[in-house]
Write a structure and sequence with these properties.
- The chain is of the alpha+beta class.
- The chain contains eleven helices and 15 strands.
- Strands 10-9-8-11-12-13-14-15 form an eight-stranded mixed β-sheet, with helices on both faces. Strands 1, 2, 3, 4, 5, 6 and 7 form a seven-stranded antiparallel β-sheet that branches.
- β12 and β13 form a beta hairpin.
- α1 crosses α2, α2 packs parallel to α3 and α6 packs across α11.
Length: about 400
Amino acid sequence: MFQKLVSHNDDIRRLVEKGYAVAFDSNCLVIRDIPYLDSNQQVRIGAIVAKLAFIDQVRIEQVDHQIYFAGSVPHGINGVPIPNLGGGPTTIALSESCRDVVVERSFSNKPRATGKFQDFYEKIESYVSIISGPAVELHNCNPYTYRVVESMVSDSVFKFQDTLTSRAEITDLSVQFKDDVIAIIGLGGTGAYVLDFIAKTPVKEVRAFDADIYHVHTAFRSPGKLDPEDLGKKKTEVYHDRYENFRAGISFVPKFIDTSCRQDLEGVTFAFVNVDKGSSRAGIFDLLLSMGIPFIDVGMGLNRKHKAINGMLRMTYYSAEDGQAQREKNLAPLTDNPDDLYKTNIQISELNALNACLAIIKFKKLRGFYSDEDELTHLLFQLGDINIIGD
């Protein structure tokens, strides 16, 4: 991958050819071996880290004019900190392969004439002249070591670089999902949105189960485009085609999960149950609880007693330790309700998406990605008055 990036980006190639110690890590450009002066006029060696964005799989561009610096405050020949660097103390998470690069501060210095750097070559050259200039002048050192660290994080499940994570500086939080094997049981309206959100989460593996057919009403309450050729196919086939080029470790099984499906769920670390039949839910609960798999169950209760639709959305979490006790509270319907308006296939994609969001947010809270101050295990969102009740 290192060589591909160098060969497809002229500015990176020029940095390498000039002798900079170029590396890539966590969607950042890393330049090691940057000399600078400390407060005692002694040479110290730091590193520059700059965020990058992928245009496609091999072409990259800058995110902004700023950089991060692994090192103490650079000083001038006069013994005072170099002026006009801006920024301040901060840190950014890199991978284990860059454990020697510990970011301590950021710098912000843009070209006066244009307000932006033309490319990475101009950007690095500018910052190096400012940071390393005093050290070069006083000690005759330079940053051109021709050292190349080609190791890159290559265990990503995504087939495109996840630059969103690095731009938001949440790489250290996203790593919480790396060992998760997720089962998504049911790919109806809510299940399809759960799939969409989980597919974009760096979990190790996703297994999706549903035996139903993709109809027109399916498209109205699920994410993505409607391709007429998808109509009449299995949902699993449609979603396979939609997501297989986005990430690895995702499989689709055209079957309904019941108590006979223990083998399908071996190794699963968390499950999302998205079914609208109470009797089916009961069998799925039996299986998950017997296997010690924590899970979240979602559902809707809608009615039309007056002119408009009203009702509520539900999210209920069942832990591996207390799942049976949670089940005994009868928070989720385990029998079929023939009067449930949802089953008439009213097009309510925004409620499907919101229900999925409630489930995904809870899952990410459990993994430490989001703050979880209340630790709710049961949540009801009341549509009419936009009120949330939690337990």
